[in-house]
Amino acid sequence: MKFTASQIAGILEGEVQGDPEITVHTLAKIEEGKAGSLTFLANPKYTPHLYTTEASITIVNKDFSPEKEFTTTLIKVEDAYQSFTKLLTYYDQVKNDKSGIEQPVYVDESSSYGENVYLGAFTYIGKNVTIGKNAKIYPNVYISDNVTIGDNVSLFSGAKICSDSIIGNNCVIHTGVIIGSDGFGFSPNTDGTFTKIPQIGNVILEDNVDVGAGTTIDRATMGSTIIKKGVKLDNQIQIAHNVEIGENTVIAAQTGIAGSTKIGKNCMIGGQVGIVGHISIGDNVRIQAQSGIGKNIKDNEVLQGSPAMNYGDFNKSYVHFKNLPKIVKGINNIEKKFDGK
């Protein structure tokens, strides 16, 4: 699909400087731009690439003033980064725009779906499932019984939605995600064996939640595991039974959250963080990558380390960690001098 500079400027409410009829059909980084591609310049350190890029169109900020000649057509906007993000979103929607019902697909007669739904081949939809309008269910998706899925939801190939799960509007569930698998619940017996505790709860995803590829969200033992609106989860995250994650919290890959832990809103959690069960983490908390969280955390804390400590204290202590061999050697030398006396 091709677009002219004037068409793109119309979408972005921008101003064309150059050829308004030049066309593009792909997107590129500014240093890799070729004829027929569209790129953007937002970070000043990439400005030299503007004068050498072969991209047909470049989106720039309105206040950009070139210092030498260039060949690319400019589209001047209020915020180049935000405008390019808007185009990426539009491009992604066009690329993944599918409609209709492919075959073979199984939909139980007790289930229903709204208008403009796409069901990819080999999709299985169990009993008493409700799917909203404009949903896109890609091939090889499994949806078990009594599941509710809202409007404008995308379930990518290989996703598994287990029974009784509830997924809100505008959610994106990526490849290989499992929502509603059994929580890890076992009762120890006197003979050293374990008895499985039935997990009879469910998982609730509120609106505008994104779940990255390979992430698993376990159903509650009783009640619900709850992912609140606006939460963004990276790939390969483990969320255990009865966990609750607050609004607009972002969690990076390979983080593990044990059962019944409550995480507040607007938190940012780095990759490979381990969080024990049955604790509470406040709002606006920042946890650096590979930290270990073993106790309750108050609002607005910034943490690093394992076990995690205050971020500033960690950095100060790290200076001493690095110098520990020298410090020990110095102490030993002092002890030797005193022993000599």
From TrEMBL:
GO cellular component: membrane
SUPFAM superfamilies in alphabetical order: Trimeric LpxA-like enzymes
Organism domain of life: Bacteria
Class of enzymatic activity (EC top level): transferase
Domain UDP-3-O-[3-hydroxymyristoyl] glucosamine N-acyltransferase non-repeat region: 22-89
Catalytic activity reported: a UDP-3-O-[(3R)-3-hydroxyacyl]-alpha-D-glucosamine + a (3R)-hydroxyacyl-[ACP] = a UDP-2-N,3-O-bis[(3R)-3-hydroxyacyl]-alpha-D-glucosamine + holo-[ACP] + H(+)
Catalytic residue list: H241 (proton acceptor)
EC number: 2.3.1.191
InterPro entries associated with the record: Hexapep (IPR001451), LpxD (IPR007691), Trimer_LpxA-like_sf (IPR011004), UDP_GlcNAc_AcTrfase_non-rep (IPR020573)
Keywords of the record: Acyltransferase, Lipid A biosynthesis, Lipid biosynthesis, Lipid metabolism, Repeat, Transferase
Gene3D superfamilies (alphabetical): Hexapeptide repeat proteins, MurE/MurF, N-terminal domain
Biological or metabolic pathway of the protein: Bacterial outer membrane biogenesis; LPS lipid A biosynthesis
Molecular function per GO: N-acyltransferase activity; UDP-3-O-[(3R)-3-hydroxyacyl]-glucosamine N-acyltransferase activity
Annotated GO biological process: lipid A biosynthetic process
Self-association state and partner proteins as the record states: Homotrimer.
Role summary: Catalyzes the N-acylation of UDP-3-O-acylglucosamine using 3-hydroxyacyl-ACP as the acyl donor. Is involved in the biosynthesis of lipid A, a phosphorylated glycolipid that anchors the lipopolysaccharide to the outer membrane of the cell.
Protein family membership: Belongs to the transferase hexapeptide repeat family. LpxD subfamily.
Protein name: UDP-3-O-acylglucosamine N-acyltransferase
